[in-house]
């Protein structure tokens, strides 16, 4: 009993301390940290009250047909916010002014779901022309995808506006690669104003979705440049992965990030990491990287799905608050792929 009480106490200290220690400069929170200045959940209540219902109606149909799309839409929001903030820059196609972020190393032949965003945008334009931004659509789709997969709901601050440029370079440098060390992950997250608690909880999004063979092949055949596998891989899992991901070729073959419940948003992802069955290096190093805070949180979330759900919701709000364009900044795109 004393051990349980101590663990609970340390977890409360950890969660509360990190929310203060690495606060992002420039963030102006309202109502106890629930939203960025200019963002609030009721933003569309009078100008487009049906906005979320429209988003959910499209998501329900799409995810029922292809459950994997939920993870893809959640990932789109993440890949957007890590590059110049949550401004829907990830949705822009190439033009004569800039190269699309879709062409970056982390995104090319990888991120997907653009047609779903297009469908949502089209329906919103029919009901509320030039009102709901593409950046807010990404945030709403990420929340809706989480809920429809069995995950938590949260009060979502809205009112983001869309950017008018993309950053191919930012996409190549800001997004954590799948072979990241834990220190690299911590550094990239801190650059966005996200701390170790956010890192571990948001990594839990890998409880749903798939990863391409090219993302984890290194772990199977040449983790440290010595033609040997990653020693942290559990042997049975390792042998199974080799059967679906050959040493030569097969880069686009996909494997579930959470093979136990790949379409269900739960805390199994953390339980698998505890067993040495995290798919990506960036998953397993949360435990094997010898950073006390991330190790502690992996264990805590593996033991308590309610704790994980609660923190994931908080971290998703924090993610969505990264440098949004508000007020007269940016625009509301009529087509998410193009600047007006």
TrEMBL record:
Record GO biological process: hydrogen peroxide catabolic process; response to oxidative stress
Protein's recorded name: Peroxidase
Free-text function comment from the UniProt entry: Removal of H(2)O(2), oxidation of toxic reductants, biosynthesis and degradation of lignin, suberization, auxin catabolism, response to environmental stresses such as wounding, pathogen attack and oxidative stress.
Organism expressing this protein natively: Mikania micrantha (bitter vine)
Binding site for Ca(2+) 1: 80, 83, 85, 87, 89, 101
Stretch forming the signal peptide: 1-23
Binding site for Ca(2+) 2: 207, 258, 266
Location, primary (coarse class): secreted
CDD domains in the cross-refs: secretory_peroxidase (cd00693)
Coiled-coil zones: none
Cysteines engaged in disulfide bonds, as pairs: 48-128, 81-86, 134-336, 213-245
Site (Transition state stabilizer): 75
Superkingdom of the organism of origin: Eukaryota
Cofactor note: Binds 1 heme b (iron(II)-protoporphyrin IX) group per subunit. Binds 2 calcium ions per subunit.
GO CC annotation, single: extracellular region
The entry's keywords: Calcium, Disulfide bond, Glycoprotein, Heme, Hydrogen peroxide, Iron, Metal-binding, Oxidoreductase, Peroxidase, Secreted, Signal
Binding of heme b, residues: 206
Active site location: 79
């Amino acid at each position: 009993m004393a051990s349980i009480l101590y663990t609970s106490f340390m977890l409360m200290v950890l969660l509360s301390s990190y929310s203060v220690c690495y606060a992002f400069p420039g963030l102006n929170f309202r109502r106890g940290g629930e939203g960025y200045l200019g963002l609030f959940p009721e933003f569309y209540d009078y100008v487009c009250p049906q906005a979320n219902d429209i988003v959910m109606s499209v998501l329900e149909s799409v995810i029922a047909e292809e459950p994997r799309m939920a993870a893809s839409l959640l990932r789109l929001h993440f890949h957007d916010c890590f590059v110049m903030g949550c401004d829907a820059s990830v949705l822009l196609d190439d033009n004569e002014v800039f190269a699309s972020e879709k062409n970056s190393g982390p995104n090319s032949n990888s991120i997907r779901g653009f047609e779903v965003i297009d469908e949502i945008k089209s329906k919103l334009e029919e009901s509320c022309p030039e009102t709901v931004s593409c950046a807010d659509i990404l945030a709403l789709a990420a929340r809706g995808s989480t809920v429809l997969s069995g995950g938590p709901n949260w009060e979502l601050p809205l009112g983001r506006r869309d950017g008018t440029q993309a950053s191919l370079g930012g996409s190549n440098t800001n997004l954590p690669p799948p072979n990241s060390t834990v220190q690299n992950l911590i550094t990239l997250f801190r650059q966005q104003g996200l701390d170790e608690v956010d890192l571990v909880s948001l990594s839990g999004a890998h409880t749903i979705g798939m990863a391409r063979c090219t993302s984890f092949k290194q772990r199977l055949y040449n983790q440290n440049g010595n033609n040997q596998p990653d020693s942290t891989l559990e042997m049975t899992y390792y042998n199974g992965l080799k059967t679906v991901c050959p040493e030569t070729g097969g880069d686009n073959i996909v494997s579930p990030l959470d093979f136990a419940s790949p379409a269900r948003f739960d805390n199994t992802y953390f339980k698998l990491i505890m067993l040495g069955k995290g798919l990506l290096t960036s998953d397993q190093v949360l435990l094997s990287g010898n950073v006390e805070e991330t190790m502690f949180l992996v264990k805590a979330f593996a033991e308590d799905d309610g704790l994980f759900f609660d923190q994931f919701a908080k971290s998703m709000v924090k993610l969505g608050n990264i440098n949004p364009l508000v007020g007269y900044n940016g625009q509301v795109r009529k087509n998410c792929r193009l600047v007006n």
